[in-house]
Amino acid sequence: MTTTDSSVRLPTSRRFFVWEVAVVLALSLGRSAVYSVVALAERLTEGALGEQQATLHSARSELAVFDVVYQLLDILFALVPVVLVLYIVWLHGQNPFRRFGFDLRRPVSDTLLGIGLFVLIGAGTLVVYGAGRSAGITAELIPADLGDEWWNVPLLLLSAARHGLIEEIVLIAYVFDRFRRIWPRTSMWVIIVAAAVLRGCYHLYQGIGPGIGNLLMGIIFGWIYTRYGRVMPLVIAHFLLDAVAFLAFPLVMGAVGVR
Q: N or C: which end of the chain has fewer CB within 10 A?
């Protein structure tokens, strides 16, 4: 006969948190960073980056019904690390939604800050992308190549939400929390820059320009999070950035005179 001891606690040593973070990143953004660096190395062997293309979302099947199923499965399984980190924080006796500021306590201020960040980062992205294309260090981005069917719009919006959730909750909220525990005396700027470098790395498959642009975005997002302690504005801003990129990228590029 077994009994349940409700007083059992998870270990909180530095080594435990190091392994915890390593496993979470290996299952999510760290894994993406490794593949992205390898993809950039392969691109560099194929010729000039400026003459290549990088497609972010492509159809997974020629049959529409299976393409939708594959896209939904990609979104579902990509969100598992988000659920994992929320569950881990809950196991440690904390409310992850309040801990990370991922709740609806401040809907107006979160939304306004998110829109402000969207405008700021969006404008910066256009500058970095245009400069990268001119310098030949950025591949031509094709955000979505899924066809014109109506259901691709909600699929792309779901994908934008997926990116906002996994990158901001895992890379910013969770990693910042764990790095503080692993290195309590380290300056927050070291943590901000480290997370920003990782963000830049998993975008390198698009070229060097997007890697630099996302590194700068990571520094701004990291500073905002340490200042306000809420990840919700970052999720909102990231969702808006990706939604516009997926659905209106050619129009935006044409409006600012970038091919």
A: N
- Rounded Cα gap, residues 96 and 173, in angstroms: 9
Give 103's contacts (C-beta < 8 A, 6+ positions apart): 97, 232
End-to-end CA distance of the chain: 70
Within a domain: 43:
yes
Question: Strand runs (DSSP E) across 125-175, as ranges?
Answer: 140-142
Q: Which parts of the chain sit beneath pLDDT 50?
A: 1-7
CB 166 within 8 A of CB 81: yes
pLDDT value at residue 66: 94
What's the pLDDT tens digit per position in 203-244? 999 889 999 999 999 999 999 999 999 999 999 999 999 999
- How many residues in the chain? 259
**Residue 91: HSE in the Cβ half-sphere, 13 Å Cα cutoff:** 12
Element (H, E) at 101: none
Is residue 202 within 8 A of residue 33, CB to CB? The reply is yes
Give the structural domain span for 244.
17-255
Residue found by looking up tokens 């094709």 in the block: 142
Q: Is residue 6 part of a domain?
A: no
In terms of phi and psi (left: phi > 0; alpha: psi -120 to 50; beta: otherwise), the region of 257 is: left
Give the pLDDT of residue 11.
Answer: 74
What pLDDT does residue 227 have?
96
CA distance 191 to 72: 33
Paired strand residues for 54? 141
Close Cβ partners of 150 (under 8 Å, ≥ 6 residues apart): none
Indicate the number of domains in the chain: 1
**pLDDT tens, 31-48?**
999 999 999 999 999 988
For the chain, the farthest-separated pair of C-alpha atoms sits apart, in whole angstroms, at: 73
Q: Is the residue at 63 inside a domain?
A: yes
